[in-house]
Amino acid sequence: MNYNEIIGIIAGVFTAASLLPQLIKTIKEKDASGISTVMLLVLITGISLWVYYGFLKKDIPIIATNIFSDLVNLTLLFFSIKYKKEKGDM
Question: Is residue 14 a part of any domain in this protein?
């Protein structure tokens, strides 16, 4: 593994983990009133395209970190919809 790949992996991990605090807060408080569903859908679409790009380039760091990011964001979207429905915000 070379220096460029290491930097790419570190950047991908930080980017992928960026919404973990929001996900944890949403689950703990069972409140997603401040989360935009449209923003999450746009973000998930973009990240999914990064995964596809990673497959086209056969770039494991891009694929792995963006799959993780997609999973975090899909989980946040799930809880966002669930808690908004429970509170009648949708």
Answer: no
In this structure, how many other beta carbons lie within 10 angstroms of the beta carbon of residue 70?
Answer: 19
Give the list of residues 6+ apart from residue 8 with CB closer than 8 angstroms, or none. Answer: 59, 61, 62
Q: Cα separations (Å) of 39 from 4, 43, 73, 80?
A: 30, 6, 10, 12
Note the residue count of the chain.
90
Nearest Cα to 65, choosing from 24, 2, 10? 10
Residue 79, pLDDT > 90, answer yes
For residue 17, being part of any structural domain is answered with: no
The pTM (predicted TM-score) of the whole model is 0.87
Nearest to 36 by CA among 22, 46, 47: 22
Is 74 within a domain? Answer: yes
